[in-house]
Amino acid sequence: MAATEEEPKPKKLKVEAPRALSENILFGMGNPLLDITAVVDKDFLDKYSLKPNDQILAEDKHKELFDELVKKFKVEYHAGGSTQNSIKVAQWMIQQPHKAATFFGCIGIDRFGEILKKKAAEAHVDAHYYEQNEQTTGTCAVCITGDNRSLVANLAAANCYKKEKHLDMEKNWTLVQKASVYYIAIHHVPTTAQFEVTALFRHPDGFFLTVSPESVLKVANHASENNRIFTLNLSAPFISQFYKESLMKVMPYVDILFGNETTEDIKEIAKKTQALPKVNPKRQRIVIFTQGREDTIMATENEVTAFAVLDQNQEEIVDTNGAGDAFVGGFLSQLVSDKPLTECIRAGHYAASVIIRRTGCTFPEKPDFH
User: Fold this and answer.
1) Helix (H, G, I), strand (E, B) or coil at 57
2) What is its EC number (predicted)?
3) Can 325 be counted among the known catalytic residues?
């Protein structure tokens, strides 16, 4: 009796496991600030000549403001500064492993520096600060009265990073080498505020374009030579006008460029920026411009695409200052897992939608992103 032939078993669909992330896979370097938030009274604002709703850089008359804020009012502390915010949001979106994101920057050897280290650790970011005693830790006071916020930033130590005293040290450079994605924001404005243009010109970005351009170039060159992804954020449009020489030294290394523009010819600008000369030909540059509540624009080698942001109940919006940093953080959280660019943008939009419903660049315990 002939053996009956078995019916062929249906082929199992091959489901690719998500890429297992390792510690220190994402690296960021920038101006760290300790955000100090408190509900204050009119007398406090008057004492330091603060408007209820304003953004300024600290002057001599504000020296005692930060300590008095802590002594007189109930304060909340958060690890802040633009790049650190994005790195923090990326780690929050990633969740596991802890310390998937690394951050380098400069702080003072003082009480605020210790608090900043603690807050970065609570966010599960692997922060390694260059600690020096010439300048105090950079801070940003967020003085709340009703629905108004008066912000005062003191960059101080944030502008004192030294490549040879930190980045070049073997134990630190080893962390740089572990990363597959690198992120730097070359603007001086802390995301707790968009400071007025005149103040920006008086206090140019000390971190990347005047104090430590060699740090940025060393990281950029390493990424290019090892075919890893180097990303850059040009948050303030004035940078391309006033620091063109420094910027153009870095631009050939940029694989993904983030920006925040709101001009009519934004698609053309994105297209031209994408086509600028590039060192690593294995990766074509991608340019991404956010426009607040307007479409996000992405330019690749072949096309320019617009992506609608998430619908948002305007009454739920509390604070939009951290939206740009949150978008980048969400984007990077998917990029390190090799997700498609469309998914990276979706994550960016999600993260921004969460942050704008809260005060400062803060978030709930876990994301709800699927």
Assistant:
1) strand
2) 2.7.1.20
3) yes
